[in-house]
Amino acid sequence: MTAAESHVLLFDAKTFAKVRQFEGHADQIVYVVFSPDGKNLASIAWDQTVRVWNPATGEQKKSYSLTNGYPKSVAFSADGQRICAGSSSGEIYVWDMRSDALSILTEHKDEVGFLLAGKEPHTLISASADTTVKLWNLETGVVISTLSGHADAVKALALSSDGKTLLSGSQDTTMKVWNLTTGQELFPAQGHKKDISALFSSSDGRYLLSCGVDQSAKMWRVKDGKEMLSMRGDYESGAVAFSASNTYAAVGYFKEIWLWNLVTGEKIHKFEGHKNSVRWLYFTPEEDILYSSGWDGSIIRWDVKTGKILQEVVTENGIDCVALLASQNLLALGNWQGDVYLYEFSTLRKIHQFTAHTAMIFNLYFSEDGLELLTVGEEGQIKIWSTQDWKLLSTLAVKGLKKSAIVSHKSLLFAITEKKIEIFSWKMRTPVGVLSQTTQPLILHVSPDEKDIFVGNTNGTVFLYREKK
Amino acid sequence: MLRSIFLGVLIFLIPLSLTAQPYERVLTFGSENFKHDFPVRSVLFSADGKFVSCQEKDIFLWDATTATKVRTISEIKYGVVAMAYSPDGKTLAIEDSC
CA-CA 20 to 30 A from A431: which of A53, A289, A404, B29? Predict the structure, then answer.
């Protein structure tokens, strides 16, 4: 059985011989389906109609028209009495074939691309481009439950034979499994759902903070990867920091910074002052002061207890990345024009500036001994500068270089490229190894003891690479 | 003379080979179960209760208790449009077209 241009063809499943042809649709047929008892056949087409046929005779039994949108999906109810069509505009048309009475279900906000009969005769399950799946009572037209969790259009559904478990497949590249009775997701995804935007490990290396564009920040136990805490905000989170005792976490959600108590899991207060996305956060060892910087070009010194601004310095041309060399009281800022600004950290006084790249500086990093500064430019070059006189020591052209690159204590340079982390010898500036991934890495972070390399990916996961013994 | 060149080459090679893969992946924070590389086009239950899903050119079979992938079928030429089991659950039909 297949849908050709504008007629339905019926074939014998054993011999593949054509049995019958159903004429009537005025435009291309989209989908055909048999009723559960096999006595009816329904088809939908671009002519905005749903037609029900007798497969034994070829007779057209019903022709129903949609008043809005085009039919994208069709299903009989489990008892075969109702024919349901999902529309491109989000409505579900339900005709009772005994009375030809029409009811229109209007809860979906976008195309209904898949319909499936529920186990009970009066239920229907719908999948929509509005990212939800809904279970309907066809007698009352009321939604029994809404299954939310997909990040993009839901394209396919399947129901287990006992009617209790539902599979949903989505444009978001995931399949989800649901307990249809409770509406709960079985095997829910753990961790972030989208791009990781920042990583920060605790001073003892036991915990990791991550944040992402899914508006959440999370604390993980490094020992076994257990998610300890999830801190949800109102906007994309782009910066995160632990306090020295690991009691607090500061998370930048767009322009706001939220202070979380990691012991109780509660939000303490909000720091408001930045005019654009917060990109860097740092607690002083005494935990009384928090530093932040943002795309708005400002560096702000906050009183942690009160959330009040103690000092604010605004630089020209924004701030895209920050590196702190606390031992030398030095703060380096990189901006979109390719300039590096150097500040005395304790006073936030500018002491030097130089042009490092012709395009945006993605990332800055001080070497462990503080003698060198690494800058990662948008044009695909890593440059290494002397922190004594800010002279250029070396340039590395890295093909497909992404935003992040760091240096480890073993004098290794890790640079993110297309689905790879390329390892270079810091001293010799030569490639020495590659860590290949199937997911695209976005950001790198090195633990304080420099034994662990954390890599945040586009699929929301964070990989831990550990130094081989 | 020949010996000193030979030694020089050796000294240069040894540190390189020692640092070639100094790190190994040991852990993943967060996981997405039933993750595909492309949009999911169709889903099914197999007769023995496994989950079946397909993306562009692959069909995956998943264990329904552990949510792990147990089999991948990748001999798809153009792209899976639809799939269905025969009533006895023994045969999987795949529509493969551009």
Answer: B29
Cβ <8 Å between B43 and A158: yes
- Tens of pLDDT, residue by residue over A246-265, are 999 999 999 999 999 999 99
Of residues A144 and A149, more confidently modeled? A144
For chain A, how many residues are written? 469
Which pairs with CB-CB distance under 8 Å and at least 24 residues apart come from A249-253? A249/A209, A249/A217, A249/A219, A250/A281, A250/A283, A250/A290, A250/A292, A251/A209, A251/A211, A251/A217, A251/A281, A252/A211, A252/A277, A252/A278, A252/A279, A252/A281, A252/A292, A252/A294, A253/A215, A253/A278
- The pLDDT score that the predictor gives to residue A340 is 97
A103 to chain B, any CB pair closer than 8 A? The answer is no
Q: Which residue of A has its CA nearest to B85?
A: A158
Contact between chains at B39 and A171 (C-beta distance less than 8 A):
yes
Task: Determine, for residues A464 and B26 on separate chains, whether the beta-carbon distance falls below 8 Å.
Answer: yes
Tokens of A43: 């088809």
ipTM of the complex: 0.73
| A410–B34 C-beta distance less than 8 A | no
What distance in Å separates residue B88's CA from the closest CA in chain A? 13
Interatomic CA distance for residues A314 and A300, integer angstroms: 9
Among the partner-chain residues A173, A176, A208, the one whose CB lies closest to the CB of B37 is A173
